[in-house]
Amino acid sequence: MADRYLSFTGTAPGRFLTRRLGLPQPAALKRFSPEQPTLQGDRLLRTAGKSDLDLDATGLGLTASSDHPAAVLLDATGVRDVETLAEVHAALHPVVRSVASSGRIVVLGAPLDPADHHQAAAQQALEGFTRSLGKEIGRGRTVNLVRLTDACAAESTLAFLLSPKSAYVSGQVVEVGPQDVTAPEDPERPLAGRTALVTGAARGIGEAVAETLARDGARIVVLDVPQAEQDARRVAERLGGTALALDITADDAGARIAAALPDGLDVLVHNAGITRDRRLVNMPAERWSSVLDVNLASVLRTTDALLASGTLREGGRIVATASIAGLAGNAGQTNYGASKAGVVGLVRSLAPRALAEHGVTVNAVAPGFIETTMTAAIPLFIREAGRRMNSLAQGGLPADVAETTAWLAHPASGAVNGQVVRVCGQSLLGA
Question: How many angstroms separate the CA atoms of 5 and 93, rounded?
């Protein structure tokens, strides 16, 4: 369903009226397209504290000065005490106003040093700073924090956050490890030669994820329930992939997936999910168990089976779908919130072991209000609240979740592990 309020505020009368009434003024976001793959303008580099990062090696095309930058990268890895935090203010205060609409600010921080509580305090302060700036900067601009020790290991992450692909990702903290990463041979098709399976891919967000991974070169397996087999085949045919009709909650789902992929799997996207909303006092046991089975138990079973069978190849990626409902809670969704919080627990526990034992990373995306047929059915006033209660004052698109998934699936994202990234426009709900 079209966001008529967003369209109205893009007109001269709309801007005048909403300004006079103090109403939200969302800006139309600039998203990725083949015709406009990058933000138009300079990428300005600023520094706070003494840094040891070699940002020249990233190939990000950073410049030391710009009057109207499309993006600003602040290297604050050298901030080690309260006094040095003043340099954060000094670096960004003069340039914030000049950042273009739908522009980007990315702050680079260092891991917290457990042996130096002054450094840990100063670096943790960057998180509050980043999230606060994201809530006030406006005009479709985003602000994110990346904690890292090696700039080259974070190249895919920085490229994503400085691009139109991250239009609905703001106020996030991403930690990038020190692992060695290998850039793909073809930057335009980084997943070429790789196989990706997306569950629940016959429609909605899953379909968008399949489309985006196919755009990046992956061979796509579209998995959905037998009732949606016709739609799954339609999507697979359009993307040059294959369809797999399968109830993901079946005890042998993992074994059947492994049998269908004798040559192995590189990217596993757990997207399938259902809702059965009702307040706990009115919720039958069946509504509870069905949501937990689809959204969490099936994810655990199939992940375990595909890792144990070796179907997920070394260098593989698992991307699970959580939700801000699992992070912040939501009335009428105790079952759904529990299932999605469980996905977060799975990611945080499995990620280090899966990387060490199988060479596979495990991450999650946590969508907020995304414009789908499901959200279009929500009553008007609740739908409008969902759209406006974030720093970008609008709903996201399935493509926003898909682009974030594609970044986590990227071959050069091997240093990103155990992360839960909210795709919510910096929702005001939860952390």
Answer: 32
